[in-house]
Structure formats: C-alpha cells, structure tokens
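S.,

Sequence below, as promised.
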Amino acid sequence: MQTRIKAIYPYLDQFKVTEPFGYACKGIPGLDIIINGKSGKMMKEKFIFLTRSAGLRLPLKHFVLCLEEDISEDSLPWVELPLFILYLSLAEVLPIHHLEDCLCSGRVYASGGLHSLLYPENFLTFLESSHAEDKILASSKLNTTHRLFPLEMLFEQLPYFSFNQEAAVTLKEKMRRQVTIR
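The prediction came back faster than expected:
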C-alpha cells in the first residue's frame, strides 16, 4: 500500500506546499521517517509513543514516510499532522485511504493534542483558485467555502486525540502582514 498527501507549512512570511509520501510493505515491522535524506528520529519516536498511548493495534508491517523537501526546523512541526495522518492511513487505522487530493497542516503533541493550522483568508483564496479539486483536512471551525473534511470526524473513533487551534491562532497573529504564496 502506498499513498501521498499535500502538506502546507509556513516559511518566513509565506506558505509552501509539499507532498510527503509513504508506503507499507512486508518486512521487519517498524516505522522509518526520512526527511530530505535525514532520519526523522524525534518524529518517529513521537508517533510510536502516540500509537502506544492510544492503544492502537497496528499491522505488523514496515512503514516508510518520506519528505524530500528541505524544511527549516521552525516549519517542520507543521508537517507532523499530515505525516501522522499518512502513517495512520497506511496502517488502516483511519477511515480514509485516498489522500492524494488532500491538503493538511498541523502539529502533533505527545499529549495527544492535534493542532491544525488556521489559514489566513488570502491563503484560502489561493487554494480555491489553484487547488480547487483538493480537500482541506482541517478543524471544522475553519470558515471556508472550499471542500473541507473535518479532522474531528476523521479522528472520532480515536478518543485519545483532541483538537485545538490555539497554536494556529498564535501563528496567524505572527503573520499579520500580507502573506505571499509560492
């Protein structure tokens, strides 16, 4: 099984879109996260901790998640949620398997907190014009006419995880000036 997802992350005063991908195969069970050729060991350990804390029973497969774009340390936490969704989808824990047309951004905390990015209005305009066919995986509180798939619904069978936009609101306040899209 293999799939990919579109991840949005803030970088300086703009947003970028990248496409993490992953696959599951037979082999020594485990998880590998590779970010621009480097090991994503901290993220890997966090994901393993979260799946154990939530009591999730994953299939005995080898999972590989890859992100080939070089992302700054400040922006890297904002691709955690898309990578975590990719992992849980490959493990058949989440009820979504076709992620190729999904956009997502957010952080994952060891406490089980999931924070989705609260997008500025001009970014939503950009999405509606250049990514009109894509779905946004975000909090149901997001005010958009774009195709929204609420993360709360996606994770409703996993009560260990909770959603909050507090971190995203703080980020939005930091980015008050005009955001340019690449």
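The mean pLDDT is 79.

Coffee later?
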